[in-house]
């Protein structure tokens, strides 16, 4: 009888300990499931550090040999203009001319045109001297005095500005985005009467570079959004 009581007591203590362990396990499991998902935004405006400037002009005529000589001379004049203004020769490239035979166009309405050939020539400046190129774009009318009319309006030959220094600002922007995410998580934890725990999962997000606006494409807006999961504790 005595042994039975001892065994019953041991069994009761064991069941009690088991119940405590199960309760703690459920509590721990529930706590592990408590988390908050937040996003942190970082934005920065930076000046473009690379520019691609296509100078496009057209030539009309009936004699291909004469057109060739004219284009060769025009290319020389444009190149000299750019070099005089501070553009390096290695930053200048001359594309092959695009020739359209107006008389050979099947659906052309140019039967009454006095010219047979329409030639498009493009000289491209690719440079890191963004400010210099911008000033030259404003001065390109000077080429009219030298007998060359640089034309625009063709979307294929728009000026393009780029920012290539992303790697140099990535750490700073990630740090700022992470800080902003943590501030949001701390506010959520405070409102829910919890303590903010460790990071459970983090996603850096993708960097995007866009024009600040349509009027200032030479100023870029860099943006990144990080997504972070924090655990919440009582």
UniProtKB/TrEMBL annotation:
Q: Which PANTHER family match?
A: SLR1258 PROTEIN (PTHR34387)
Q: Which organism is it from?
A: Phocaeicola coprocola DSM 17136
Q: What is this protein called?
A: SIMPL domain-containing protein
Q: Which ranges form a coiled coil?
A: none
Q: Which domain of life is it from?
A: Bacteria
Any Pfam family the entry gives: SIMPL
**One GO BP annotation of this record:** DNA damage response
């Amino acid at each position: 009888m005595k042994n039975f009581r001892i065994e019953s007591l041991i069994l009761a203590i064991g069941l009690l300990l088991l119940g405590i362990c199960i309760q703690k396990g459920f509590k721990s499991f529930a706590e592990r499931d408590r988390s908050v998902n937040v996003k942190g935004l970082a934005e920065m405006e930076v000046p473009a550090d690379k520019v691609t400037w296509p100078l496009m002009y057209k030539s009309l005529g009936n004699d291909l040999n004469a057109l060739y000589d004219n284009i060769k001379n025009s290319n020389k004049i444009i190149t000299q203009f750019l070099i005089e203004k501070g553009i390096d020769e290695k930053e200048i490239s001359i594309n092959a001319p695009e020739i359209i035979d107006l008389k050979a166009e099947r659906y052309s309405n140019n039967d009454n045109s006095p010219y047979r050939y329409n030639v498009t020539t493009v000289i491209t400046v690719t440079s890191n001297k963004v400010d210099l190129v911008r000033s030259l774009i404003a001065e390109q009318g000077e080429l009219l005095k030298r007998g060359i009319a640089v034309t625009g309006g063709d979307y294929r030959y728009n000026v393009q500005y780029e920012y290539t220094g992303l790697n140099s600002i990535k750490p700073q922007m990630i740090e700022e985005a992470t800080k902003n995410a943590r501030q949001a998580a701390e506010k959520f934890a405070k409102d829910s009467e919890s303590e903010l725990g460790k990071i459970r999962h983090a996603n850096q997000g993708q960097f995007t570079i866009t024009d600040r606006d349509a009027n200032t494409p030479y100023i870029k807006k860099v943006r990144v959004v990080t997504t972070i999961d924090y655990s919440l504790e009582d």
